[in-house]
Amino acid sequence: MQGSPIDPKWETISRDELLAVQEERLKGLLKRAEEKIPFYRRLWKKEGFSPDDVKGLGDIGKVPFTTKQDIAESIRLFPPFGDYQGDFHAIRVQSSTGSTGKPKAIFHTRNDWENIGDLWARRLRVQGVGPTDIVQISFAYTLFIVGFTSTEGVMKLGSLAVPTGSGAVTPSERQLQIAHDWGTTVIGCTGSYMLHLAEVAREMGLDPRKHFNIRVSFHTAEPLTEKMRAEIEDTWGCKAYNNWGSVETGAPTWECPEQKGLHLNEDAYIFEVIDYKTGIPVPDGEEGELVVTTLLKEAAPLIRYRIGDITALMKERCACGRTLNRMTAVHGRVDDMIKVKGVAIYPTDFEPSIKKFGVFGGEYLIKVWNEGHRELVKVLVEFLGEDGDRAKWCEELTKDLHGALGLRSEVEALPKGGVKALVGTETRTKYKRIMDLRKK
Ligand SMILES: [Zn+2]
Question: What is the distance in A from the centroid of ligand 1 to the CA of 257?
């Protein structure tokens, strides 16, 4: 079965048919990589692997993993782009923001670009976006991919794209003015920026629910916690959707209106979840490190790439009726996980406590440093309550965090906007919530 990813037939394809498509596409990808990509030839030779070893989907475990270190090594050996791009005619390069190490260049052929746009259209169509919508895209238009590819998806659906870009190029007041005056019905941006826009709207004397017409907001690039989603939906009176992806993968997952996990574009990708220590697949429903294979990508495809995000596969059928499997929302990356005083923590673990009291803003920054052998943690939050109560609430939060995380931390409350300025809510494309200043 062939056909463009934009075709809705893929969403309800039978599992048998889907597995046959995956198998055919996997074999095609391995063959393509062997012929045209020196990077894979090199790695596979070292591991004694040949694409002929894969007779069917069940043999995918024989294909060696690739890692961020392999890519970094490729760039070091073959600067500036590495030898993982392959012998394809690329028309465009985008780059990851490099949460670890140097930015990675990812080449795209014309087909690659079309496919990612189609997959974005699939996401947004499922999330209720259609030809009558006015879609404001407040993601950054930069080497980071999402601004451009989401715009492609919007245009493929016949909606009207309003490419305002992030707050760094179109300040928030102006974003809101446009949304108000032009009647924006859908906004795409990070979840934290969506909440920031609501605050700015109120400062302008506008009520996000009353004075705007936003039905849908779609988010990616940073984890959207359930607390954050609830706040966005409540504030704007819209449906807020989570989408997970990255520059290397394109547009691999999306939420449906059930909002219970992210559906996987299994016609275009293979997803596995492994124990990040042993590399062995974990049972369905258990958390582990996500491994992605991009079946359709021509230039710079990922083949069993250990992307570092932590998730779990959900194989039970979704109530929406779609047959594509799902995964749980990514709440952290292997890289984001830090061990403090022997406790493994993710930045999002701090969020429920911070939001619970209703006196702290949504932004926070966790500082970790050491004094001798002692590891110290400070959580910087924004205090929005009455000034006289500040110390009391900080103490409450300290207690709550200790109870929730089993970790003692100091809480410092900055005035409104204080943390935002530190983490760069307006200008960032990816979130940064942990500052690890420990001397190694
Ligand atoms: Zn669903």
Answer: 7
Q: How far apart are alpha carbons 196 and 78 in whole angstroms?
A: 42
Shared domain for 47 and 158, answered yes or no, is yes
User: pLDDT for 150-180, tens place per residue?
Assistant: 999 999 999 999 999 999 899 999 999 999 9
Cα separation, 24 vs 20, whole angstroms: 6
Q: Ligand 1 centroid to 321 CA: how many Å?
A: 6
Cα 255 to averaged position of ligand 1 atoms, centre (Å): 7
Q: What is the pLDDT of residues 308-324, one digit of tens each?
A: 888 999 999 999 999 99
Considering 333, 359, 379, which residue would you say is the last residue of a domain? Answer: 333
Structure tokens at 198: 């609501």
pLDDT of 100 reads 46
Mean pLDDT, to the nearest integer, of 341-349? 77
CA distance 393 to 357: 8
User: What is the distance in A from the centroid of ligand 1 to the CA of 48?
Assistant: 40
Q: Identify the sign of the CA torsion 206, 210, 214, 217.
A: positive
Residue 45 belongs to what domain range?
1-333
Last residue of a domain, one of 310, 333, 356: 333
**Is pTM beyond 0.85 here?**
no
